[in-house]
Amino acid sequence: MTLWPRSLLGQVLLAVAGALLVAQAISAALLYRASEERRAQHVVGTLAVQITAASTGAPAERVVRRWRERGGLGNGGARRMRVERGATPPALPSDRQETAIAAALREVLADQGVQGADRLRVASREALTDPRVLRRLEEGRPVGGGMDLGRARVVLASLPLRDGEWLTARTLAPERDRRALQGLALQTLVLFAVLMLAIWLLLRRITRPLAALTGRVEQFARTQDPAEPLAPQGPDDIRLLIEAHGRMEARIAAMLDEKDVMLGAIGHDLKTPLAALRVRIESVEDENERARMAAGIEDIVRTLDDILSLARVGRASEPPERTDLAALAASVVEEFEDMGEAATLAEGARVVAPVQVTWAKRALRNLVSNAVRYGGSADVAVLTEGGEAVLRVTDSGPGIPENRLATITEPFVRGEASRNRETGGAGLGLTLARAIAEAHGGRLVLANRPQGGLIAELRFPA
């Protein structure tokens, strides 16, 4: 089972949906990356302002104004806390080292000429674990300006001073801009809805007439009946295709009609002199010679009938009708029994399939005739297998060489090389049987039996 749809509509919709999903995923990644860079820049700028002001003694307002001019701080100001001094940098077991922020802050402080920037330490911790934050909360002083402290983190930067003490600055890291990601998700849903609907409507204008054209082609292939032309619909390209198919179908139907007329004329023109020749040979005195001539005429007539039948397969005037194949097979087997041939019908369940009775009998008769001729006997069985109705004919003859199974159903190809009337006809029996099966939407299956002999099956859609 594959997840890739087989229809044009499904494949295009899936491809567009996949491309849109990838594009939006890339946009989300870039947006997230830009948001994280802004957050880090804000933290670095805020810590740099505090450390620079505390270590150089410059007024904080001047330092803040300078950093805003350089883009290091947002218009919302820095969420600063009082800088503290201590013998050692404040540390908790849960602290997380922030190497990226430390590298950026070292570069900024070094650029400002702050001493000891190369030994700077930067770590972060959950806001509610920081003693300074907890103390401010206990005192009732505002912290974070409405920020959700349960998910916020405090970033601490500790700078060593010349007197051996450490200067530590704190700031609350800005919250992630969740609204931007939510907006991107909403934008993606809207794009999916609008784009998928537009593509679905467009492709339906293409696939609907293509489906109608496919059904018409399949119907014409089965019946060769030129019904009412299919009305052009859809875009101009599809309309032109439907119109071209209509013209081609009309031309093919006209050629088939001409072929039927021509074959009828050929059959009449050939059978008339053959009938006259059959009458004339009665005047031949030699009985053996007369029998030979009559057999030759009969052989020509049978071959002519096979050729005309093969040419008319699929052009039956009556539609298929639901038929009991067991009864059909019984009538064919009875014909051979009346002629003294070894043909038997195995008992089985009732199997019904839509067939043209005359043609189905002709196909089965050809298979039984071949089995009797080459195998000495024919065993016929009727069954259902794999959703198909099967007419199976089995013999005990020599079978067919494996390298000839694929070509044995071609016109004028015979199982044995001679053209002796005693051993076979013109080589059209299997060809006609295959054509009849295919005209019903079925197939002819040939296979050699392991114990010897041939299995020939007419398989029709049940």
UniProtKB/TrEMBL annotation:
InterPro entries: 2C_sensor_his_kinase, HAMP_dom, HATPase_C_sf, HATPase_dom, His_kinase_dom, HisK_dim/P_dom, HisK_dim/P_sf, Sig_transdc_His_kin-like_C. The chain crosses the membrane at residues 184-203. It is a multi-pass membrane protein. Residues 265-462 form the Histidine kinase domain. PROSITE patterns: HAMP, HIS_KIN. Its EC number is 2.7.13.3. It catalyses: ATP + protein L-histidine = ADP + protein N-phospho-L-histidine. GO terms for molecular function: ATP binding; phosphorelay sensor kinase activity. It is found in: Cell membrane. GO terms for cellular component: plasma membrane. Residues 204-257 form the HAMP domain. CDD domains: HATPase, HisKA. Keywords: ATP-binding, Cell membrane, Kinase, Membrane, Nucleotide-binding, Phosphoprotein, Transferase, Transmembrane, Transmembrane helix. PANTHER family: SENSOR PROTEIN CREC, SENSOR PROTEIN RSTB. This is histidine kinase.
